[in-house]
Amino acid sequence: MNLYFNTSLANGYHSPSQRIRLLTEDWVYNNMFCPRCGNKKLEQLSNNKPVADFICPHCSNQYELKSKAGEFGKKIADGAYSTMISRITSNTNPDFFFLNYCPDIQKVYSFIIVPRHFIIPSIIEKRKPLSAHAQRAGWTSCNIILSEIPIQGRIFVINHEIEKSKKSIIDKLNFTRTFEANDIETRGWLFDILNCVNLISSNEFNLEEIYRFETFLSIKHPENYNIQPKIRQQLQLLRDKGYIEFLGGGRYKKTILCKE
């Protein structure tokens, strides 16, 4: 992949947002393959397509591109809150590309894929509506809370200017497809427990170590009054999906999928 933008395309554009949208979309069009089926090229969609920028001409999978100067950080600004929620809860929700770039040299620094089943309403933060004096008074945008997406759902194509192999990218995305069949509420709980497992530094852990996250989980799920049984249930699901192994006696072990 050529990590540099074709800056000549932006000549004549004065709006920084228009310039970077043009450059980043051109970069994806010329460099990115379909991580779902491996097709060599993606096609651009019309500008008025809500929450989608690219489509694979072979498998018809759609992708939304979000770009940011510098490091990604915990949140990435997005468009209208209602549009985002409507699209990600539909049957045609897209996978997401997140691109961060070096603004001084107009070069891709990191590029990740987040499969669509990891984008759930609980990671979409509703921002305050625009004031009554704003041009679009009442309009409400949102943030995508990237830090709440488990690391298994953040698949690097480029990491600190180092390109990953096409096969490893497709394989990692395919590994995550076991989450596709679950409803949104189930996935929310499952991802929260997976994040807790990820926070445990050792390869093996026990129930007591997971129970230490009970207060955190109670805050995130105030409607649930039986947190410990729910934790055990979700650990069983993670075991069934191949992310952890049950060793017996309340002990678990992370598998290679959980360490990617």
Corresponding CATH superfamily of the largest domain: Dam replacing family, catalytic PD-(D/E)XK domain
Uncertain segments are none
Structural class: alpha+beta
> Helices and strands, in N-to-C order?
HEEEEHEEEEEEHHEHHHEE
Please identify, by name, the CATH architecture of the largest domain: 3-Layer(aba) Sandwich
Number of domains: 2
- CATH top level of the largest domain? Alpha Beta
Query: Strands across the major sheet, in which order?
Result: 1-2-3-5-6-9-10
Identify the overall geometry: globular
Query: How many individual β-strands?
Result: 13
Beta-strand portion reads 15-25%
What is the averaged pLDDT score? 91
Query: What is the CATH topology classification name of the largest domain?
Result: PvuII Endonuclease, Chain A
| Overall helicity | 25-40%
Radius of gyration based on Cα positions: 20 Å
Largest sheet, strands/sense/barrel: 7 strands, mixed
Number of helices: 7
Distance between the termini: 23 Å
